[in-house]
What we know:
Blueprint: H1 2-12, E1 17-22, E2 37-44, E3 47-50, E4 55-58, E5 62-67, E6 73-76, E7 83-89, H2 99-109, E8 115-119, H3 123-141, H4 148-170, H5 181-197, H6 204-211, H7 215-226, H8 230-248, H9 253-259, H10 265-276, H11 280-289
Antiparallel strand pairs: 1-7, 2-5, 2-7, 3-4, 3-6, 5-8
Amino acid sequence: MVQNLQMLKKRVDVPEFTIQHKNDNKTIRDFHAHPGYEIVWVRNGEAKFIFEEKVYHVRKDDVLFFRSSDFHRVRLLEEAPYDRVMIMFTDAFYSFEQPIFTAFKQLLDHSTVPHRLLHLKRQWHEETFHHIIHQLLKEDMNQHKWQQKNALSLYLTELLLFLGREVHTTYDHSSAITGNSNEIRLQEKILREINLIWDTSWQLNELADKLHFNKYYLCHFFKKEFGLTIHQYILERRMYEAKKLLVETTIPVTEIAANVGFSTSSNFIRCFKQQLQITPKQYREEKRRE
């Protein structure tokens, strides 16, 4: 049990701030969520970011920012190198109330979806953005610099100001769908239908009929575009919702099992333990001790 709790602790610990420049094709394979916010700048290559009902096909000079507490997954095109800068931070990073950070959070909260995609179109905007990112990377390299955290918060605030102004002055809502817009819309339509039935005793035939798909083609298309099967997606969505209920409520495990679509609590506990190497009860107890 101690080993399981240590594994859980390792999995959920999120630093207050981190910035990484990565050019490998390693990403978290499953749908996931964690506290805080993410800003991703694609320097080269492309990737697909999949949320509950939204899909973004990001390419060179795209900047995507979002609440990382949202259920999401990154799907890479294996043949293309993926060069990006990733920034992750939580509310705890700011030790005082920062008006620009507050406005940034409100920007996401008041959007129809809590994520935004920008494209760096104009040269001077690119230069400003690149300079801020360079300062953050440079500052993060040396942990012994005087007032490093305050310097990082200063540069991060400058970045949030830049992104907020871009949204308010140059944001093109049509840029939220990139690539083949018809294909992206079809993917989003499938996600919307699945998100209507994930907590029910759903049937593949009925889902395919609603989408006017052959059920075999639907399964093939979903696996090809999202990198997992429909059954796997629904299980991951159920685990995501179950974890929220375990942490945010005192609802008994048996009720949570029913709320997230399991016919029996024993089946729920078995699946939960297979996915997280810990029981729902242990997960709740551990989160309460944090």
